């Protein structure tokens, strides 16, 4: 079994980290650079910075924030939000990102996935999928969860892989911020449909939740925000817990 990754996510608005519930009720969670510095010391495997209003405001992700975070960490950094073109991706990578995450733009212009994969390699291109349970499937939403994309998450994940994506960042909008556990069913459905890593996101609230999504959910990585931001769970504690469950992690 490959080593499972633990990823800290920072949703950034107006230069500060925020966290909400089901993409609403945002509250302040700290300074991006300060949190990045802490995570670097604590042993997080990767950091994701999502500029959550860049797409809605039709602008690039905040270059200053990306640079500030990249200066504090010595591990992979993914940047998402406002990546609508090759130039936007270039700006993010020039500012210090190792990977870029595409969401709305990937659905509108799927060829952008291929363009970026050819330029930077598939390992640098993540397609983010925000989805809700609906009937027998999982409906994809875009524009920070405000618009129904009329696509199924499993189908879209397969297409994203075929177009060159190196990873899928799958967020359950139903679970986001609830701390009630990841949506293991949705994660497993996507994970078993593609051959690239799937990062589970949305719902982390305790140690058991991570164990569940790595086993029942078949996830390759698990992303969380609030439980790390507010120090409810330490990265070290989580990794030792997972190791005790026989789940391979990097200590």
Report on the structure:
This protein is an alpha/beta fold and 251 residues long. The protein has a single domain, classed as Aldolase class I (TIM Barrel, Alpha-Beta Barrel). Helix content is 33%, strand content 29%. The protein is built from 10 helices and 12 strands. The protein has an 8-stranded parallel barrel with strand order 1-4-5-6-7-10-11-12, surrounded by 7 helices. Helix 3 links the parallel strand 5 and strand 6. The chain is globular and about 40 Å long.
CATH architecture: Alpha-Beta Barrel
Order of helices and strands: EEEHEHEHEHHEEEHEHEHEHH
* Biggest sheet layout: 8 strands, parallel, barrel
The tally of helices reads 10
Q: What portion of residues is helical?
A: 25-40%
Number of domains: 1
SSE layout and pairing:
Blueprint: E1 5-13, E2 16-21, E3 24-30, H1 32-42, E4 46-51, H2 63-70, E5 77-80, H3 86-94, E6 99-102, H4 104-108, H5 111-120, E7 125-134, E8 137-142, E9 147-152, H6 153-162, E10 167-172, H7 184-191, E11 198-201, H8 207-215, E12 221-224, H9 226-229, H10 235-244
Parallel strand pairs: 1-4, 1-12, 4-5, 5-6, 6-7, 7-10, 10-11, 11-12
Antiparallel strand pairs: 1-2, 2-3, 7-8, 8-9
Helix pairs in contact: 1-2
Name its key features:
single chain, 251 residues, alpha/beta, TIM Barrel, eight-stranded parallel beta barrel, 10 helices, 29% strand, globular
